[in-house]
Every structure is written in C-alpha cells, then in structure tokens.
Design a protein that fits this description.
- By secondary structure, the chain is mainly beta.
- Strand 8 and strand 9 form a beta hairpin.
- The longest helix is centred in the middle third of the chain and has 19 residues.
- It is globular, with a radius of gyration of 31 Å.
- The N terminus is likely disordered.
Length: about 950
C-alpha cells in the first residue's frame, strides 16, 4: 500500500493542461442513458454518463478532437469537438446489439459475439442491472448452459456440460485474468474472492473445452469476470441490500449485504480504485435424515442407522448375537453456528506511462468468510481467507502478468470428525459398544424384550449410563461405566468439547484442518496483427507453481510443504476468406506438468457469415482439452475413518503411512503382530475390489474375489466437436443454436478398494500368502481406501441448446432457452466406475422484462425448470427432483438522488428444492436494495 501512496503523490505532483467538455446522452424518447461510454478517439481518455445521462470529460487532447459515444442497445455516434463551450447533447438510436457485443475470451482477441468460433454467453451492464437474483453471480444461473451446484447460500459451483460436483475441477474462473481456484482444493469457491456487484463490467462464459488457449483444467468451461476501469468509471458508488431467507429447516432469517466502490483518475496517467463488500446470512441448513444404510430412519427401528446429515453415526461395528450397530450421531446444525459471512476487498493502482494504451496495474484482492463446503465430508469453512496480488503490463496487442494466490483455512473443520471426537470425548468407542452389547443381550435374557426394545435399552445405557431398575443389580453392571453420558447439543459440556475438537488438527482427537497452500502464476500474450498483415497471429505462454502446506492434515506434507510446477505455450492464427465471409481460426498449445508427460491441444474452427448483411453465422469447431490431476489427486493422504483417501503420485504411496490394530483372531489364529504398518502401496498394489469382497463375505468362496488393478492417475483428455448458428432476424429476434459431442479418454475417477492387513492378494487359492488374505478379510483385518485413477471405460457426452430473444411489444423483451444433455458409457468395461454426470437431461429457462416500463420503472422475471436427475458424489448419491423456480424483481430509479431501488424475490411461491445431495435445500429469499451511483 505504501507503494501505491508514493505513486499517487508523485503523479499528483505532475501538472497537465486539461480541456474539459460536458454534455448529455439520451435515447430517441428523450430519456437519459446512464452508463453510456464517452471516449476520446485516438486516446485512452474517457468517462461515462451519470445517472441522469450527463457527463463531464477532461482530456489533455488539443482542440479539435473527436469523441465516440456508445451504449449497449444503441448505435454508436462520433462527434467532432471544436470548442470547449460546444453544446454536446447526443441522441442515440436503438439497435439490437445482443450478437454484436464485443467479447475477448473466445479467441483472446476482440470480436463480435456473432463471429465467435465457439459457444459463448455474456452478461453485460444492462443484464447485471436487470438480474432477478440478489447478486450478479447468483444471476449467472439464468445463462444458457449453466447449472448451479449449491453447497451453501454463499458457495455456488458452476456446472457446464456435466461431470461436476461442488468441487468442479473441470471448470476455471478468471477475475481480471487471475485464476480464482483454491491452491489446495483446485476448484473455485464461488465469488468468495471475486468481484463486487458495483465493479463488475461484464462476464463472459465459454461452456466447452478451452485448453487450446487457456491450458489445463479449462476442460468443461471457463468463466471470465472483468472489472471496471477507474479511468472510465470514476466516482463513489454504494449499495445496501436487506432481505429475509425462509427455509423449512432454518426458519426465517435476515440477510444483509453492503458494498462500496471508489475510483479516481487523478490524471490521464494515473488512477486508483478500491472496493469493499460485506455479506452475512443464515445458512441453508442441511437436514436430510435419510439413512445411508439399509433399514428405517432413526435408531428406533434401525440400530445401524446412518443419517445423511447426522455425523458420528458412521462409527459402526458388528457385535455377535446383536448385529451391526452404529453410535448415536449429531445433527449438522448442532455442529456449526449456521452463520454465513463474506468480506471482500480489493485495491488497485493503474498507471498509463505513455500516450498509447499501455497500462501497468498493481492489484491486491482479499476474501474472508465462513461457509459450508461439501467434498467427501461436510466442512465448516470458518474464517477462511484467500488473497491475491498481481502486477500486469498490458497494451493494445500484448499483456504480461504475474500473480500469487495465498490461502489460510483459518478455523475450518470437518463436521464428521467433530461429531466422532465429541462422542469419544464422552465415551470411547470400545466402551460404548461394550456397554451396548451387554445391555442388549441381558435385557433380552432377563426382561424378554424384543430386538427393537433391547436396542432402545442398550442405546440408552451406552449413551447415558442409564438402565431399567431390574437390570441394575446384575453383576455385569456392578462396575459403573468410566465414560460420561452423551453430551447434549447446547450444553456446556457439548460446547466445550466442540471448541476443543475444532481447535485440534490431530484427527484422532480433533477435527481442525490446516491449509496455508500457495500458487504462483505468470502468463504472457502477444498479437502480431499490427506487424503481420497476412493473418492475425498470436503467441503466448504460462508458468505455474503449486505449494501445498497442510502440515499433514490434508496432504502427506508431514515433513514440510510439497511443490510442483506446470508450464505451457500456444500459438493461434486467424484468417478471413471469401470477402471476409469465412473466418478460419487454428490454435495449438503444449502443456507440461512436472509429474506427467506433455499434452498437445489443437483447435480448428470455421465461421461462415451468410446473407446480404452477413447476419447468418454458421460455425464448426473441433478442439481437444485436458486436465491434469489435481493436487489432491496426487498428494492427498487423509484418514476419514471408514476409509482413507490416498493420492497416486508415485512418491505419495510411500509418504502415506499408518499403523492399524490387528484383531484378536488375527493375532491368535493367523499369528500376526498386534499392529501392522500400512502405506499407499497397499492401496494401489495389494487390494481387492469392494464388490468382490462383499460377494466373498456372503459366499465364503475365494473365487468371488477380484484383484483391484489400479493404475496411477494420469491426465484426462477430451475431444470436443461443436456446431452452431447465430443470427438476428428482422433486427429484433436473436437466435442462437448449438450442438456438441464430447469423447473422453482416461476419464479421471476414484475407486474404493479393500486391502487386507496381511497376505498377498491374488487368484491362486493354493498360495499360502493368498490364503492369509482370506483370513484377514474374515477377521475384519482390512482397510478401505479411496484411490485416484483413470477408468478404462469409454465415456462420451452430447447436448444441444436453443436460445431465442425478441422484443414482443415496445420495450418488453421475451427470452427463452432450452438445453439437452446426456452421457454414455459401458458399465461392463469398468463395473466400479461412477460417472458423476450430475446434470439434468432437460432444462428450460425463460425471462420477460422491460427496463423502460415507465420513465424510471423497470422489471424482470426469470423462470427455470429441470427434469429430475441422478446425483453421484463421494458424500452421497440420490435423485435430484424435478423443480421449477421463479425469480422476479422491480426497480425504480431516482435520477435526482442518482439512486436505484430494487425489490426482488427468488424461488417465489416455490417449495424448498435440492441441487446437491447432502447440502441444504434452497429456500426463498425476499430482498430490497438501494444503490447510489450504480
């Protein structure tokens, strides 16, 4: 920050001769146009109109000079300025420009949407203003091809073209060119460190593979969020939103959101910008009590009950003459305060040292908050922090940037481990199950109770040390349990235990996880269009370094941080033929990760502009994409209790070590020691498939066992074919059609395997070492591992979309889009493969709005519908029901106050609905916002 102040003081000390002009911009109905851009032609000087359509522009350009006035939905005009007292009142004509808007992301060069070689969706200033959602990021759900996976009221993951959970590692999100992904998790945490509603200039979405230009992990889509420049968008803007959320599990709660933006161009060479936002709300409480084991809901009818959003009841054991029994769990809402917070701030200095478009940007961003993340378990992210710092130099035809991302998990913890260890703080597992077995068997023998009655008595004794009077005199109960009664939620004992376990990173006693991972990234690009006339040629490259630092709580970094590097380079050629009707774009990229062989990603596309005015645009493209295994795929080493996650980097197999206890039968009958050391080598090289072990348990036939042949994980690849058509008919009907077909190779997958504590897995039943594994499995001396590998199954997906938009009456605009998506694979090629497509086959979205219902009044309505679909993830599987969601907003402008009042509602008239199995059902929100100088 000291550097920024020094630059500011230095720049303010320089004097420039300024010319100032003023004027206004209105439409053909004489209504003001706020946010219109006024730029000096041939210069970087510019400004935008205020809320009442007026503007004031200062420039060092000498008279005469020309200015260009433009606004979304209107034809641009240029005016010659010859005098400082010249009256500049501009009237812009309406124009249907939806497909004429300029985008950059599709080809890394400015081009009209209608000429983009691939499918692209865009949200501009007007769409952001009209969104029916409480924030622009929530409003992305109304874009074609977007499906949200909502883990929390503040954590929404974007899913485009399938194969995504909350942790969508196949999707990238760039904010002002910086990757927003968590260095440790390798996926985006929603808008935690994104852009304020006041500062967002536009959003561009590429829903397909983009690795040819953007490298690894731009696999199933990439989102670009671009902020406003302080040179053209000066001033102070403020908003405040108040709302109420309503959900069956959480009730009705307050929602507060505040933001402020300040930007000032001190000279045409130097500008500063700062943003701050604060949001707080109550979580969509996850309260799904379905049982993950066979049997009824609740321990009253199912002594092995494992509720989806109850934790602690995953701890289970088989008791002879009793059956499989689980401990009593705690509800998720008892293990967290259910409060969501998010603080975002960013500061940037912008320097234009020359008269051309060269700009130097120094930027710092920070996001802090508390939310819920769902992976293999449910995690309470408390006081989580991520920060980014960037230095960038860019010009008309080039950019070079370097940035660093640093995160800190703060006081975050695993809620499942929290429940396990709160239970154990009261009474250890061995004593609890012993108490249960004793009370169960004696209640039946002495009192003649049935199984359910015996189970109730046994659980009451194991949980609370309480017995029916008739059992108290028995000698088996002469010695009172050493463990304490179960800690009831809300009690002082419970609160103390929760505080203790969530502060302890030792997962045998606590639940806290540590993460101080980092990421360093640089990329460069140069466009030779002003040097080479034959075609537009670009070249570029990138470099990245990951540093994992979890102190052994997530990764196998027990002895210090683990790091690895990636780099890549690309080139692209664009050429127009046939009187500029046919545009060819070809690009190729090479990427290399330290732990894997290099990948080459080509892309070839053709766009043909037909018709007299070239308004019928047909496109065809072929491209490949790839994604490298994530940091977790390679280096995780996490004991989750019932199973452990083991990354498959070769050195990680030896880095992961654990000591397991051998059963009494294993010691006395099999002659094994009391403890055995296990490593990642056991998971990948000495294990059976889960399904075959289950079959062996039922049949006792060794022939049912199948050796798990698990290969080490390698990069996943996709071949993507896409066709599309865009047009504007009769100047007001926008049409956008697209279809795609994807073929995946080496599809990354996780598998569960079972490794015996001793013996060597195999199919030779006469081999003594193989026979030892039969004993280990029979005695329960086995370990379940989740491993990271690639499926041998052929996986493909296809889909198509239709988007239509038309002004149906005056300024009433009706829009609708439909998307179809499906995937295909042969389960017999890999019986253990879990696709996790997690995408509805049919989706329909529609909108109706009018931003000029009256002079200052506007409204918008959105509706979304989807068919039911299967959700698959490591936390839980199930069907997501069909649902219809209606959102609406009304806004009124107060020009004299330079303010806008918006009142809106999400899920209007609807019931709570699900997007993620295991996450909270999404309820309803009513909100009102007041924005000054939007």
């Amino acid at each position: 920050m000291r550097v920024y102040l020094l630059i500011m003081l230095f720049s303010c000390g320089i004097s420039f001769s300024q010319n100032t002009i003023s004027g206004s911009v209105t439409d053909s109905n004489k209504e003001s146009i706020p946010g219109a851009n006024i730029n000096v032609v041939g210069s970087s000087s510019g400004t935008s109109t205020d809320f009442d359509g007026s503007f004031k522009l200062s420039t060092t350009e000498k008279l005469p000079f020309s200015i260009k006035i433009s606004a979304v939905g209107f034809e641009a005009q240029s005016i010659r300025v010859t005098s400082l007292n010249q009256k500049i009142d501009v009237v812009l004509k309406d124009e249907e420009t939806k497909l004429d808007e300029i985008v950059v992301s599709a080809s890394r060069t400015p081009e009209r949407v209608i000429e983009s070689p691939v499918t692209i969706e865009r949200m501009g200033i007007q769409e952001i203003k009209n969104t029916t959602a409480p924030t622009f990021y929530d409003g992305l759900e109304n874009l074609k091809e977007v499906n949200f996976n909502t883990s929390s009221i503040s954590f929404k993951s974007i899913n485009t073209r399938g194969f995504a959970t909350v942790a969508n590692t196949r999707f990238m999100q760039l904010v002002d060119g910086m990757d927003n992904s968590s260095p440790a998790l390798n996926f985006v945490l929603g808008n935690l460190i994104g852009i304020s509603d006041l500062d967002v200039a536009n959003v561009e979405l590429l829903p397909g593979a983009s690795s040819a230009l953007y490298g690894a992990n731009a696999f199933n889509g990439i989102l670009f969020m671009n902020s406003k420049s302080p040179f053209t968008n000066e001033g102070i803007s403020v908003y405040y939103k108040y709302g109420q959320t309503t959900q069956n599990a959480a009730g009705t709660n307050d929602y507060n959101d505040f933001g402020i933006r300040a930007a000032k161009a001190f000279t045409k060479h130097f500008a500063l910008k700062a943003n701050f936002t604060y949001m707080e709300a109550t979580e969509w409480i996850a309260a799904d009590n379905r049982s993950m084991t066979s049997g009824g809901i609740g321990h009253a009818t199912n002594q092995n009950y494992d509720g989806l959003n109850l934790y602690g009841d995953e701890v289970t054991t088989f008791i002879p003459n009793v059956g499989q029994v689980s401990r009593t769990g705690y509800r998720e809402q008892d293990l967290t305060d259910n409060k969501v917070k998010n603080v975002k701030a960013d500061f940037s200095a912008h320097i234009k040292p020359f008269a051309d478009e060269t700009e130097i940007i120094l930027q710092y961003k920070i996001g802090l908050g508390s939310t819920i993340y769902q992976g293999a378990n449910r995690y309470a992210l408390k006081d989580f922090m991520m920060q980014q710092g960037k230095i960038e130099v860019k010009g008309k035809n080039f950019f070079a940037r370097f940035y660093a991302t640093d995160e800190d998990a703060g006081n975050s913890y695993d809620m499942r481990f929290a429940a396990w260890n709160i239970n154990r703080a009261a009474k250890g597992d061995t004593e609890w199950f012993t108490n249960y077995a004793t009370a169960y068997q004696l209640s039946g023998a002495v009192m003649g109770t049935n199984a359910n009655e015996s189970a109730l008595i046994a659980r009451n004794y194991a949980d609370y040390n309480q017995l029916p009077a008739v059992l108290v005199p028995l000698p088996q109960f002469a010695t009172a349990p050493t463990g304490q009664p179960r800690f009831e939620p809300g009690s002082a004992q419970f609160n103390q235990a929760l505080a203790a376990v969530t502060a302890n990173p030792d997962l045998t006693q606590g639940a806290k996880f540590i993460d101080q991972s980092k990421l360093y990234h640089s990329d460069v690009n140069y466009n030779f269009k002003d040097i080479i006339e034959f075609a537009e040629i670009q070249v570029g490259g990138s470099w990245r370094k990951y540093i994992m630092d979890s102190q052994g709580t997530i990764f196998t970094d027990y002895d210090g941080p683990i790091d690895y590097k990636e780099y890549g380079a690309y080139g692209q050629l664009t050429k127009k033929f046939m009187d500029d009707r046919l545009k060819f774009t070809g690009s190729v990229r090479y990427d290399k990760s330290q732990n894997f062989d290099g990948n080459i990603s080509p892309r070839v596309s053709f766009v043909y502009s037909g018709g007299e005015s070239k308004r019928h645009n047909f496109r065809l493209s072929y491209q490949t994409g790839f994604r490298n295994p994530t940091t977790q795929d390679q280096y995780i080493g996490l004991d989750l209790g019932p199973f452990a996650l083991i990354g498959s980097a070769p050195e990680n197999l030896d880095r992961f070590q654990e000591v397991v206890n051998v059963s009494a039968a294993g010691q006395t009958i099999a002659g094994q020691p009391a403890t055995i050391n296990m490593s990642g080598q056991n998971a990948y090289g000495n294990a059976y498939t889960v399904a075959s072990v289950q079959a062996f348990a039922a049949s006792a036939n060794p022939a049912d066992l199948q050796v798990a042949n698990i290969g080490l994980v390698k990069p996943e690849q996709v071949q993507a074919f896409e066709v599309g058509y865009r047009s504007v008919v009769q100047n007001d009907l926008s049409i956008d059609l697209n279809g795609y077909y994807n073929i995946y190779n080496d599809f990354m997958n996780t598998s569960r395997v079972i490794s015996p504590y001793y013996g060597k897995v195999g199919t030779d039943a006469t081999n003594p070492a193989v026979q030892q594994t039969y004993q280990a499995l029979a005695f329960g001396d086995r370990r379940v591992y989740q491993v990271y590998t690639n499926t041998t199954a052929k996986v493909s997906s296809l889909g198509f979309g239709v988007g239509l938009s038309k002004k149906v009456y005056k300024d009433f605009e009706l829009g609708a889009n439909y998307n179809y998506a499906q995937f295909d694979f042969d389960q017999s090629e890999d019986p253990s493969f879990i696709a996790g497509f997690n995408t509805p086959k049919h989706r329909i979205k529609a909108s109706l709005g009018n931003s000029k219902l009256t002079k200052n009044l506007g409204f918008n309505v959105n509706v979304r519908w989807n068919t039911e679909y299967l959700w698959q993830s490591s936390f839980g599987d199930g069907m997501i029901p069909e649902n219809t969601v209606l959102d609406a907003q009304v806004n009124y402008a107060f020009p004299k106050l330079k303010s806008v009042l918006k009142v809106g509602a999400t899920n209007l008239f609807g019931d709570d609905y699900l997007q993620v199995i295991g996450a909270g059902a999404i309820g309803q929100m009513l909100f009102a916002s007041w924005t000054i100088n939007p």
